[in-house]
Specification:
Layout (H helix, E strand, L loop, with lengths): L1 H38 L2 E4 L5 E4 L6 E3 L2 H10 L8 E2 L11 H4 L5 E2 L5 H6 L4 E5 L4 H9 L4 E4 L5 H14 L3 H22 L9 E6 L2 E3 L5 H9 L2 E2 H5 L9 H7 L3 E6 L5 H12 L7 H4 L3 E5 H4 L6 H12 L7
Parallel strand pairs: 3-6, 4-5, 6-7, 8-10, 8-11, 11-12
Antiparallel strand pairs: 1-2, 8-9
Helix pairs in contact: 6-7, 7-14, 8-14
């Protein structure tokens, strides 16, 4: 009986050891597969569900819009940008002229397929709104195209920075950019939170295309985060529609926000003079007070990390008393 007990105990020990060995073997296999996956690169999924595979970080990147380039120059070093647009080299217009000057090659603002291919990119960040056919063609040619939505909210801007950083293999830099963006937004929010809703300034935005600013565009979100009321949204205009004089009179804005364009703000000053001379607007509060905020043109469409700078500029212009420190 004692012998049977010893045999049974020995069998149990043997089975237990076999179990441990098998478990360790399979764990080792799983670890090996994980390592293999890591050495084979990484996959990303773009805004439209297309999956891109990278065996290494891209080294020749192109961004097809000015705001994409704004993010790109802060994410990667100049030698990893294959080319940059002419407008972003323009010191009178660009927010990144200094960084753009370090990039060797230049492409037109609306670059053709041939122009892009000639730069031999291994990654193209492309806003798809009007470029689906171009993206498809480049993809068929073997070029990796990350298709992108147009950001119109703060959260969409954060997502754009995050997704670009992951795709470029520079996630930590992207996280740092988002933290800095959020710091600027929070600093403004703390100040304008003191203003009751009924005392917040009403604004009408002017760009080179005239008075506009629907509730579905990025300008509206800049207004929301700045603590001002977008007159275009109050008037109920549609996306890309213009605000008429009659609508401006009805909104009765406290401030006109005019884009600062051209040498020494020639466009902004000319627009302001035109508004002040408009007899139909003579009784509008902003005209009576001659109240204008001159906003950098790139801030007007700031769907990059400069969203935070645009919000700060609008808030300071509307409520200078809150920014005396």
């Amino acid at each position: 009986m004692m012998n049977n007990y010893i045999k049974n105990k020995s069998s149990l020990i043997f089975l237990f050891l076999v179990f441990i060995i098998v478990t360790l073997f399979f764990c080792g296999c799983r670890q090996e597969k994980t390592k293999d996956a890591a050495t084979n690169g990484y996959n990303v999924k773009d805004d439209f569900g297309y999956t891109l595979h990278f065996t290494e970080k891209p080294k020749r990147i192109i961004g097809t819009t000015g705001n994409i380039e704004e993010i790109l120059v802060e994410l990667v070093t100049p030698e990893h940008i294959a080319a940059i647009s002419e407008s972003n080299r323009n010191k009178e217009y660009s927010l990144i002229a200094e960084e753009a000057a370090k990039v060797k090659n230049t492409i037109p603002d609306r670059a053709s397929i041939e122009t892009i291919v000639a730069q031999h990119p291994d990654l193209v960040f492309m806003q798809i709104k009007t470029n689906q056919a171009m993206a498809d063609t480049l993809s068929k040619m073997g070029i990796k195209v990350y298709r992108m939505e147009t950001p119109v909210t703060l959260e969409m801007v954060r997502n754009r920075i995050r997704n670009m950083s992951i795709t470029a293999g520079e996630q930590e830099r992207g996280n740092a950019m988002i933290r800095e963006l959020d710091r600027k937004i929070e600093a403004v929010k703390k100040r304008v939170a003191k203003i009751p809703q009924e005392k917040r300034k009403r604004v009408i935005g002017f760009s080179s295309l005239g008075a506009s600013g629907s509730s579905t565009g990025v300008f509206h979100q800049l207004c929301v985060e700045s603590g001002v009321i977008n007159g275009g949204a109050v008037a109920g205009i549609e996306y890309a529609a213009k605000i008429s004089d009659e609508q401006i009179i009805k909104v009765n804005p406290d401030i006109f926000i005019v884009t600062d364009e051209g040498p020494e703000n020639e466009y902004g000053k000319a627009t302001a003079r035109s508004i002040l001379k408009d007899e139909a607007l003579k009784d509008v509060k902003a005209v009576k007070d001659k109240k204008f905020i001159f906003l950098k043109a790139r801030y007007r469409i700031a769907n990059s990390q400069h969203f935070g700078d645009a919000v700060t500029a609008i808030a300071k212009g509307a409520y200078p008393e809150l920014f005396t420190e």
